[in-house]
Write a structure and sequence with these properties.
CATH superfamily: MetI-like
Number of helices: 15
Number of strands: 0
CATH class: Mainly Alpha
CATH topology: MetI-like fold
Largest sheet: none
Strand content: under 5%
Order of helices and strands: HHHHHHHHHHHHHHH
Distance between the termini: 46 Å
Length: about 280
């Protein structure tokens, strides 16, 4: 009898209304409304104010389309480079213990703490016309890195350097090394073990790292404006196009590209949330 009563009391306690739940959710939404939700909504509301036909007319301007294509290209190249590097660095730092590993991790993570304008200035000092490398590169090859598409890619690589690494390394740290040992016992080479045992277990981390890197690259502004020259139809990315059009008083032109970037960012993070668990299976 006592057990039944205790069970009933436990069930009643579980069904009691938890005031903290709606209050907590309400506070989160209340904080997000003016800080995140309403600013994003204003971009879409203003963009569609004159109708979809007018929106497409503004968006289809040659300079606008060029800026979107350039951003997609440079972000894609930077993403591939940083995923490959992130995979290599994460594998080495996860598998091997060596002197200076902590210092190396700090250096890899450093770009997240450096202001992007400082990153752009640093790249100018290295790759610019009178930079440590750029001076000799231009002198002996007549090739200038700064104010070209290559400079934008370098800037994107620099500011997104740690993102893929930061996602892949925890996945490797949690990887069961007994699978590697078993594969090697069965005669698999190190490369075969890596490609057929380790790499498949990192699908979720690789995709997530790639999407995060791409989303960050496509919206990069501070370092890009320093190294690109912001030349229309040459080195003007989508964020730089928004900046230029706003300064010219063409708010509609700036807003059209802002809508596109917002949609891309929303799509990227939706993919991360929806498919990460599925990819890790």
């Amino acid at each position: 009898m006592g057990a039944v009563t205790a069970s009933r009391n436990s069930g009643v306690a579980d069904q009691r209304f938890d005031l903290g739940k709606p209050v907590g959710i309400g506070l989160v939404i209340a904080a997000m409304l003016p800080l995140v939700i309403m600013p994003l909504l204003s971009v879409f509301i203003f963009g569609m104010k004159e109708g979809p036909v007018h929106f497409w007319k503004v968006l289809s301007a040659p300079a606008a389309l060029f800026s979107i294509k350039l951003s997609l290209l440079t972000s894609s190249v930077a993403t591939v480079c940083n995923v490959l590097f992130g995979l290599l660095a994460a594998y080495v730092l996860s598998k091997y213990d060596f002197a200076g590993s902590s210092a190396l991790m700090i250096i890899i993570s450093l770009p997240t703490a450096i202001p992007t304008a400082v990153a752009g200035f640093a790249l100018l000092l290295l790759w610019g016309k009178y930079g440590l490398i750029g001076y000799y590169l231009e002198r002996y090859t007549d090739f200038e890195v700064m104010f070209t598409t290559a400079a934008i890619i370098l800037a994107n690589i620099f500011v997104t350097f740690p993102l893929a690494f930061g996602v892949i390394k925890p996945a490797l740290d949690n990887f069961d090394r007994s699978y590697e040992d078993a594969a090697e016992t069965m005669g698999a080479s190190r490369w075969q073990t890596f490609f057929y045992v380790v790499l498949p277990s990192l699908r979720g981390a690789l995709v997530t790292g790639a999407l995060l890197t791409f989303a960050r690259s496509i919206g990069e502004f501070g370092s890009t404006i320093m190294v690109s020259g912001n030349l229309a139809m040459k080195t003007q990315t989508a964020p730089l196009y928004i900046f230029t059009k706003f300064n010219e008083g063409d708010v509609e032109g700036a807003n059209a590209i802002a809508v596109v970037l917002a949609v891309i960012s929303f799509a990227v993070f939706s993919l991360i949330i929806l498919f990460r668990n599925r990819l890790e299976r």
